[in-house]
């Protein structure tokens, strides 16, 4: 075989190999790991757990058969599989009293008259409640009690004349900057930036961006440092991260003027607002 013939044979072999490359189109991607459960740790609340996994708190509660008290205990295992749940459909018939609750705050939360709620539960003024106590929210019982006077140890009185001990959620929220500073990182979900970063000065005081109730205060969420979450309505939550010192506790009501935390030496605050469980641009709310 001549050198020319040998060279032609080698070229034909190479061309034949290159015409049938190995296919990579049908190669399956390895299955991703999905977290299905969460074990409750000390200091966690259902709000902080829902925040961690980008879930709506009432949907997480429904998936775990929790009532509106959202009471959880350390060591409890929660399911994170919410399926196609959208909202709690069945009417709430009972409420488990949490620390800091009053009859007035419960009535405000569920949109019922305090007087009817007191009568339906056979409570007398001054309507003292104990953590763990079950309050009925049964519609029939509330309708029967509607408009009737409440019995006290001395005389009949109308609960409607008594002022609530805790504020109701405002329907027309006015948002203000929680701290003075410069926005150095903007809201960009595509870049996994669910909030904004504000550069202030060391030790700056942080205020609530809007009135509400503290539903989480701690350092249990990785990446947030010392964190505060405030509930402003059934749909709106705000979060204040990277604090050096927390000045409020879970269950505490706050107003614009109230100090909630102190920043550290870097003076950096991370701020989020979530509507119905989804991150939204804080700059669309803060004036």
UniProtKB/TrEMBL annotation:
One of its GO terms (molecular function) is metalloendopeptidase activity. CDD domains: LysM (cd00118), M23_peptidase (cd12797). Residues 1-22 form the signal peptide. It holds the Pfam family Peptidase_M23. Residues 36-80, 93-137 form the LysM domain. Keywords: Signal. This is LysM domain-containing protein. It comes from SAR92 bacterium BACL26 MAG-121220-bin70.
